[in-house]
Amino acid sequence: MDQQTLCFSLILIISGKPQILSLSVENTTCAQKSSVSQWLKCEVEGNPLPKVVWLSPSKRLLEDQGHSLHSGEWRRTACVPYLKEEEDQVITCRAENSEGHAEKDFPESEDVRMIVIVVSVIVMMLLSAVFIIIVIMCLRKHRQKQASDRGTELQPVYSEINCDPSAQVNSMQSRQNNMDTGG
């Protein structure tokens, strides 16, 4: 009997919307023949491999200035020259493929930073308030428990005991008189 070996190959292709992994200024060279010392570098990922488009503040394409390197099966690194006079301008890295797009600005908007800071402060204040309320409630409960424990303690009872028989007779007669008179 012949034994046959069957080999199956399964290829799983997963499509993915582009993601921007990093966006930063680098002092490395992205182009072979360039005198530019600083580059804005954008690393993207997605399947199919995303195309990187650079946008100026007026959303004008900066495509002719950019360089793109294939840095993995689903990764691409793209660069554009970053000039000192452009530091106050926002440049956008946009990654596009058939599944969608992703954008990131450099430098990040001050509005976004302020929102993150304000939200963080508010969350910290709320958490602090909740903590303080919990501590106050626990202290009150503890004090109430202590007060109720004190109330259930045995209290000594004092009574008067007279050993003088004549005093007992006088005491009983005065009680009887009080009952007869109704007072």
Automatic annotation (TrEMBL):
Keywords noted in UniProt: Membrane, Transmembrane, Transmembrane helix
Transmembrane region(s): 114-139
Residues annotated as domain Ig-like: 18-113
InterPro entries to which the protein is assigned, alphabetical: Ig-like_dom, Ig-like_dom_sf, Ig-like_fold, Ig_I-set, SIG15
Domain of life of the source: Eukaryota
Keyword Membrane attributed: yes
Cited Gene3D superfamilies: Immunoglobulins
PANTHER family: SIALIC ACID-BINDING IG-LIKE LECTIN 15 (PTHR46942:SF1)
Annotated protein name in UniProt: Ig-like domain-containing protein
Organism for this UniProt entry: Ameca splendens
